[in-house]
Amino acid sequence: MAASIQHHILERPSFDKPVKVLIVVAPYYKDIADAMVAGAKAEIEAVGGTHEVIEVPGALEVPTAIGMAERLSNYDGYVALGCVIRGETTHYDTVCNDSSRGITLLGLQGLCIGNGILTVENYEQARVRAEVDEMNKGGGAAAAALHLIALGRKWGASRKGVGFMTQRDEFQIASDAKGSTTA
Question: How many Cβ atoms are within 10 Å of 133's Cβ, its own excluded?
Answer without folding.
Answer: 7
